Amino acid sequence: MNSIVRSVSIETDVTSGDFRKAMRQLTGGVSVITAGRGRDILGMTVTSVSSLSVDPPALIVSINRESSSWPLVKRYGFFGVNILTSDQIDIAERFTGKGGLKGADRFAGARWTTRASSVPLLVGALAAIDCEVEDIVERHSHAIVIGRVLDVAVSARTAALAYGRGAMSPSIRTRMRRSLPRSACRRGSPHGSSDGGTPGGTGLAFLPHPI
Ligand SMILES: Cc1cc2nc3c(=O)[nH]c(=O)nc-3n(C[C@H](O)[C@H](O)[C@H](O)COP(=O)(O)O)c2cc1C
């Protein structure tokens, strides 16, 4: 890998508090990262998911190396990105560890399915993305994880959950379904697998090809 690491040369007295205050001004979409399989599962709420490249489909997420989920992401080499809808604030809060919730207990009260990687994917997420870890850059308190997209499921729902100025709130309505050709968006799996056996389906539309 051709990474360029530099030592910064200009002294600064910017504190982490100053930086945090600035970053609170940046509104971001809220996702839940999931890792592990079976009963050995963990997850966390993040706003740091970002697209890296479309061809090949890849994304990045910044994960605190002190978080409980980090060892599982590293050990299994797979993770899920579950982009939340505006009415999934309770799920977002559970996955911040609110009220002392830990481990698999955070998954209670929502329905989950799995795809190729076996990580839990949220049924009813705005989008659920199955990823394999391609690269990890451990820097300062966090690790930048590059995920290669294995599978994508897109919901018919339209309103995203956003975090900004220290609070979560409904965000922009996506126009994804409208921007996709009719043939590209359908219920069910491109591989014909089930949605976890839930009556009436998952409400997820799996794309024939990841976008
Ligand atoms: C809105 C919001 C966004 C967050 N984004 C991130 C993030 O991008 N990366 C990260 O490592 N932690 C992020 N966190 C913190 C984790 O959700 C939280 O530390 C973690 O779930 C709890 O750690 P634990 O699993 O070790 O208990 C965020 C928290 C909130 C409330």
Percent helix: 10-25%
CATH fold-level name? Pnp Oxidase, Chain A
Number of strands: 14
What binds here, in terms of ligands, is: flavin mononucleotide
How big a fraction of the residues is strand? 35-45%
Order of helices and strands: HEEEEEHEHEEEEEEHEE
Rg from Cα: 17 Å
What is this structure's SSE topology?
Layout: H1 16-23, E1 28-29, E2 31-37, E3 40-46, E4 50-53, E5 58-64, H2 70-76, E6 78-83, H3 89-94, E7 112-113, E8 121-122, E9 127-139, E10 142-155, E11 159-164, E12 167-173, H4 176-179, E13 186-187, E14 204-206
Antiparallel strand pairs: 1-11, 2-3, 2-6, 4-5, 5-10, 6-9, 7-8, 9-10, 10-14, 11-12, 13-14
This protein binds flavin mononucleotide.
Flavin mononucleotide binds at residues 30, 44-48, 62-64, 67-69, 95-97, 163.
List the main descriptive attributes of the protein structure presented here:
211 residues, Pnp Oxidase, Chain A, 4 helices, 12% helix, disordered C terminus, binds flavin mononucleotide
Structure in a nutshell:
With 211 residues, this protein is mainly beta. It has helices spanning 16-23, 70-76, 89-94, 176-179, and strands spanning 28-29, 31-37, 40-46, 50-53, 58-64, 78-83, 112-113, 121-122, 127-139, 142-155, 159-164, 167-173, 186-187, 204-206. It is globular, with a radius of gyration of 17 Å.
